Amino acid sequence: MKQCVLLSAVLVFLAPVSAIADTLQGPAANIVKTWFTTDRSLQCYDRQGNDAGCEFGPDANVFVKYAPSGDTAVAFATYVNDPTGNAEQFAVAIFRKNSNGWRFVRNVQGPSGKSASNVTFRGDNVGFDTEVWRKNDGRCCPTGRKHWTIPLR
Fold it and tell me: What pTM did the predictor assign?
């Protein structure tokens, strides 16, 4: 009986994390999951402060948008990189499809803020908005908006 209760508790605890990772849609979803959980440049840490892969969970919002051509994907991640804190990080990565499947191209340097929205593809660029902090904003609640345009090539 104890083992059954323990197993049930573990499954209930893990279900939301699996469900969040499974919300990534489209043909590049698997490579995006791999990027988010293994790319050390995203600077995620475990509870002991050791370098670790980022984790899907309630403190990570990762989504993918696809260029109309279907051969380019852009992943956006707003996440808490340290489980002992609450500071959010923002990352953008570009992926491209070739004859062998999807591959990671690069992390995009520069964009900041949180919660990418209004993603549009124009030519060889992707544009999007993020929420950004104004001078007197609390850390929780940015009130500014910034538009970013990033070359895909």
Answer: 0.84
